[in-house]
Structure formats: structure tokens, C-alpha cells
Amino acid sequence: MRRTLPFDFAFQTSALVAAIIVVHLAYVTVVRPNADAILEAQADRAALGDSFVPDRSLYVVLRDYEQESCFILALWAMAIMGMKAHHSVRERRMLGQRLVEVAEGMSILPEDTREYARPLQALPEAIRGNLLPRALLAALQRFASTRNVQDVSTAVRAVCEAESDRLDSELAMVRYIAWAIPSIGFIGTVRGIGDALGQAYEAVEGNIAGVTTSLGVAFNSTFVALVVSIFVMFLMHQLQLVQERLVLDAQHYCDDALIRHMQVRGQATAHTP
Asked: What is the pTM of this model?
């Protein structure tokens, strides 16, 4: 089903709001309380003069606002990619259907195109807007008007290339998110280093707790952002692979199920009444 721009905007907005709510709720109820408890326990041990090596807790690594923003964006991107993957899977199911019934050994003449186009035109509008019905209809209409099989192949290729370009352009928001996630991590790095430099005087006096905490923010935000970005990029490339295969398989379907049966008068060996 071809989606409209208002539908895409409404879905992406709803997905962003849901991602913000889910991630922030997890941070408020789980991540930050546990991270604060761990940091307080470590501060108490340091105040008592105990010599210990602080454990690298996952809660402490994830506690800052930059990491929370990265997870919000990642969840948002996954929702968008999930919608597009679901649409591609639905379109792929049509490749297993016989939308055009042509018996083996039969030929399609330009005069026959209306007969074969009628079942496609009778499909519900939501289904008729999918790639495969559009490519088949374009092939039949071009054959009826030009009576040239080469023009039919060109028309199908043009429809598939246009669909490929459309699918690629619709991933622009996902690409932006994949770029924004490491950028947010670097913002956390700058913020942490800036805070550490602002507390340099305390380190000179022998109190390095504030400096180490700020440096922890700097390195943890970059670490989390890069890991999340790698995961999002992997999912995006898998989605692109699914979409590219869909377009190529649709073009092959048109060639195998329709175009190879087309012949002009004088070349046909058999002809459907």
C-alpha cells in the first residue's frame, strides 16, 4: 500500500513520542536510581579512605542525558525501519501470487492487453498501488500503445528504478538519526571535558573526584553513542538489502510472467482468444 505523507508524518511523530516516554520511564525508574546508589556507595567508601577499584557498572555508563537521547533516537529509528520492513514484506508476498495468468507457450498480443489489465485494475486501490501491480499495468499499457517489447522492458525498468529511488529517499530520516546519534555522543564528550576543566583547581588541591566523574561522562557518552550507532546502521543496511531485493525480484517477475510472452502480430505462434 502506498503511504501518504500525512500518514508518514503522523507515524514518525507518534513513534518519537512513544520512544521518549518509554526510554525516559526506564531511566527514571531503573537506570538513574541504580546509578545514583552505586555512585553514592563508591563516594562513601572513598570518604572512609578505603582503597578500592570502582566497578564499571552498566547503570553508571548509561546514566547521563546524552545516552538517554541516543536510545530515544535509536528506538525511533527502529520504529521507522520496522514500518518500512513490514511494508516490504507485504509487497514481497505478492511475488508468490499469479497476478497475470498466462499459460506456458501462449503469447500476448497488443490487442490482448486490456484483457490482462482488467484483473489488475480490479484490485483494491491499496493493493493496486504496490510495486508489482503498478509495474505490470505499466508494461501492459506501454505494450498496447507502442506495440514494442523493448519499450515494455524500459517501462518496467523505469517503474522499478523510480520505486528504488523513492524507497531510498524515504530512508533520509533514518540516515539523519544514524548521523545524529554519534554527534550527541560527542556533545557529551565536550560537556564532560568542559566540566573536568572547570574543576581542575580541585584536582590541584588533591580532590580528583569531580574531575574523574566529568571525564566518565565524556567517555561513557561517546562509547554508548558509537555502539548504538553501529547497531542502527546495521539494521538500516539490512532494510536496504530487503528493499533492493524486492525491486529486483519484482522486475524479474515482470520479465518472467509477462514480458517474455509478449509478441507482435506476425511473430506470435499462439494467441489467446
From this structure: 0.84
